[in-house]
Amino acid sequence: MRRKTMKQWLLALGAMLLSVAAQAADFSVARYGAKADGKTLNTKAIQAAIDAAARQGGTVVFPAGTYLTGSIFVKSGVTLRVDKGVTLLGSQDIKDYPVLPTRIAGIEMKWPAALVNVYRQSNAKIEGEGTIDGDGKVFWDSYWTLRKQYEPRGLRWASDYDAQRPRLIQVFESKDVKLGGGLLLKRAGFWTVHICYSEDVTIDGVVIRNNQDGLGPSTDGIDIDSSRKVLVAHADIDVNDDALCMKAGRDSDGLRVARSTEDVVVRDSIVRSGAAGFTFGSETSGGFRNIEAYNITVLDKVPVGILFKSAHTRGGFGENIRLHDFTMQGTPVVLRITMNWNPSYSYARIPDDVKDVPPHWKVLATPVPRERGMAQLSDVSIWNIKASGARTAFEVDSYKEKPAQRFTLRNLDIEAKQGGHIYDVAGWTFTDAKLALGTPVQLEDDRGVRGLPPAAVQVRPRAVKEDPSKKSFEEQDKS
Fold first, then answer.
1. pTM, whole model, 2 decimals?
2. How confident is the model at residue 13 (pLDDT cuts 50, 70, 90)?
């Protein structure tokens, strides 16, 4: 009897200790002075809770309410849990985002931290069914003000770098990071989720809404930047620029760093609004390798379904890329490859009247030899593409010196008013291509393309296209 009583006592004690440990693993921001009134700046209180959780490994939790905050930094071993009913609201004061070394839009420079950061850490999580709201309109407005000043001076390319705006979530030089669980991410001041120089990152279950309070410029959805072993799943995206985007550095600085984006899977996601459904570039310098995207739905507010974009100063490569099981509903262009994207943004030239040149301008304006600056696309497989209500099937413009080569396209079901054109390619093979086109696909010659139905092809001299640099800046952003 005594043994049984002792055993029961030990079991009860063990259960109690486990319960205490579980409770100790949760660190409520309220214990550190945070107030959920949407007005009190809670940066220090939230960070204190994160730092306490980091000392023994734990979860930071929030009582229901709205927490105004500047940049916070999730540490190794910590879970930041933003439950339903909780909103982290970004400060509109740029001073609340400390300036740190990072990479932004393809070059390494100092830049304001994101609202939520995993910065040089490991084994960290950001999860829950709550909201992270960047409240970014003040930063959008400051960007447009600066850009309107820069545009007439030929400084379109500098405006994105000089109008410093905080990203919503940054994962930088980190590994084993998880993000998702139903989070609503909204109104980012700049990019929404930026994964840079990181590995073993999972983003599963995020809803991104940046088109509230207007159309936020450059409010990309999820950018995977010179990182590896990344999974993105169950993303629901409504943004005003790249939605699901692979990046790898810009021009001379990206070529210097030379870090590829590789071993990435993106699946089971929907793009409701954005510059394209799935994008490579325009930051291509480090290259892309072993990228797969599938079960992607792209809706009619998205101008392009699959987009490869670069410039003749970017360099880099794309190889072993697999894109399949895309559904495009009213998406105007099914596949676009442009290697001279948005010249007024892509090519930096410092005006002669600028005397005090910022260091990052010098980096952006560093010349890149043309041979090194042309990106090479090769070994790309695209299959099971269903596109209805499109304007144009193909807009493909590569380089004669480095044609886009060894593309295999099969089981295409495309309905479009125009076939479009495929220029400067080699070794393109179409199989089981069902194309309902109002006009045929234009080719300069048919030596690089095999398998298109004869009725769907017309061989003729290349049409002269309008120079995108002559468009207004509103039009360029939509191109």
1. 0.92
2. low
